[in-house]
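Methods — Computational structure assignment.
A single polypeptide chain was analysed. Its primary sequence is given first, followed by the predicted tertiary structure written as structure tokens.
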Amino acid sequence: MKRYLLPALAVALSLVVMGTVWQAVRYETLAESAHDIESRQKDWVEQNRKLAAGIAVLSSRERAAAMAASLGLQKVSPARRLMIVVPQGPGGGGNG
């Protein structure tokens, strides 16, 4: 019995060491992957902020009027506007 105890202990100890090394390598790989994902997320957040600022600038009336003027567009007079009225059916005007 004692004859098998030392080799079994050596095998068990080597398996524990190999498992610990494998877990450390796996942890480092996952940590690197998480860091990459976080940096991409930061880039996306910054890009979204820039896009939101661009939308805010483009949605202002003054900016829209300036863009229209630069393109040579003019406001349509009320006489040239066409208003379309869709009659409402007996059931409340629903589609079905």
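Note: The longest helix spans residues 2-58.
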